[in-house]
Amino acid sequence: MHKLPFLRCLSVSLLTAACLAGAPAYAADKPQVALVMKSLANEFFLTMENGAKDYQKEHAAEFDLISNGIKDESDTAAQIRIVEQMINSKVDALVIAPADSKALVSVLKKATDAGIKVVNIDNQLDATVLKGKGLEVPFVGPDNRAGARKVGEYLASRLTKGDEVGIIEGVPTTTNARQRTAGFQDAMGSAGMKVVSVQSGNWEIDKGNAVATAMLNEYPDLKALLAGNDSMALGAVSAVRAAGKTGKVQVVGYDNIKAIAPMLKDGRVLATADQYAARQAVFGIEEALRRVKGEKTESGGNVQTPVDLVTQAAQ
């Protein structure tokens, strides 16, 4: 896997969804690229979509873009239906952030069998399931484990050896959720902290809040909550406030969405990780276009994108 340099802010343009209804929205000589994301209720994926919109505007003569997302993070059936729509629409390439690392593989096999170039972004597809289908799909995204470890190490520097912490995990059937949990555990283990609970918050604010509330009640000596994304961190902050433990229980997240910025500034969130949502979509689209053109790519098309620690000092 090769690493891309930290590039200037790139982005891409969403064309009308009229194509889904069969409207002749595209020029025949330009490839059609479909961007399929997870929940557009999550600010991270809205940022990804906007990045895609801006980039396509800058490269309007080179390709057309269809952009879609699902309502909530775990609605894999809806995402499968979107991919099937893209197959029926005969797009040239499909760039996908899968809601489930295993469940999307079968429909993506259908897409590749139909001649569509598929590129995986954000959440990596399960290698074993891909191998079982005889399918190779390039992955464009960050090292989630390393990113989470950076956040965990920063948190650990503000704790005392032996402190109790809880991890709020994303959807457990996703590779990036497991990798982020592993990164948090790496950091906590190395620093001698005690992970007393790992529970799924499904990437969502309300579920993150419910899990955080339960952990705070069950473990009164808890010193920190490590959330696998910033949406769940927002829920955790509310739970900490409701428990009267603001300033006593640290919260960290992952994604660096805009809603987290004021909380980083005033200390309600200690740290997060920026994985540059808009750029991830662009890198994936660029790889997809290379494949449509038949160009050779390094490392099988795998691209490791940046992920950086963000703290109060950066605000």
Please explain how this structure is put together.
There is one protein chain. This protein is α/β, with parallel strands linked by helices. It folds into two domains: 2-141 and 276-306, Rossmann fold (3-Layer(aba) Sandwich), CATH 3.40.50; 144-274, 3-Layer(aba) Sandwich (Rossmann fold), CATH 3.40.50.2300. The protein is built from ten helices and 13 strands. The protein has helices spanning 43-58, 76-88, 105-113, 127-132, 144-156, 175-191, 205-218, 230-242, 261-266, 277-292, and strands at 2-3, 32-39, 64-70, 93-96, 117-121, 139-141, 164-169, 194-200, 222-227, 250-252, 271-274, 303-304, 308-311. The chain has a seven-stranded parallel β-sheet, with helices on both faces. Helix 4 links the parallel strand 5 and strand 6. Helix 5 (144-156) packs parallel to helix 6 and helix 7 (205-218) crosses helix 8. Mean pLDDT is 91; it is low at 1-27.
Set out the fold topology.
Blueprint lengths: L1 E2 L28 E8 L3 H16 L5 E7 L5 H13 L4 E4 L8 H9 L3 E5 L5 H6 L6 E3 L2 H13 L7 E6 L5 H17 L2 E7 L4 H14 L3 E6 L2 H13 L7 E3 L8 H6 L4 E4 L2 H16 L10 E2 L3 E4 L4
Parallel strand pairs: 1-12, 2-3, 2-4, 4-5, 5-6, 6-12, 7-8, 7-9, 9-10
Antiparallel strand pairs: 11-13
Helix pairs in contact: 1-10, 2-3, 5-6, 7-8
